[in-house]
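REVIEWER CHECKLIST
Item 1: Sequence provided? yes
Item 2: Single chain? yes
Item 3: Sequence as submitted:
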Amino acid sequence: MAAAAQPKLEAPIAGSPIADPWLRIEALPCLLTIEISVPGFTVADLVHLERGRIIATRWTVGQDVPLRVNGELIAWSEFEVVQNRLAVRLTELA
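Item 4: Structure as written out by the authors:
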C-alpha cells in the first residue's frame, strides 16, 4: 500500500524547467584549439614550410599551454604522449 502513495517519476518533457538545460546544446559543434605561439615567425618561414620541417618554439617543456573553445580560454593543459599519439592533459580550468 505504501508503494501506491509514492509519486510516479516521469521522464522530463522537452522545454519544461525540469529538463536538463544542457541537453539542448550538447550536440552543437565547437572548435577546440591548443595554442603554442612562435614569436618571430615570418611570411618567408611560411613560404618555406615543407613536410618534415621542424619549427622551433620558445615554449619550455612542462610549461602549460592555453586551451580555447571558440577563441575563449577555458583551461590550461600540457602535452603528453599516449600510445604513439599526442594528447593534452588538463592541468587547470580557467
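Item 5: Key structural point noted by reviewer: The helical segments are 2-5, 43-47.
Item 6: Recommendation: ____
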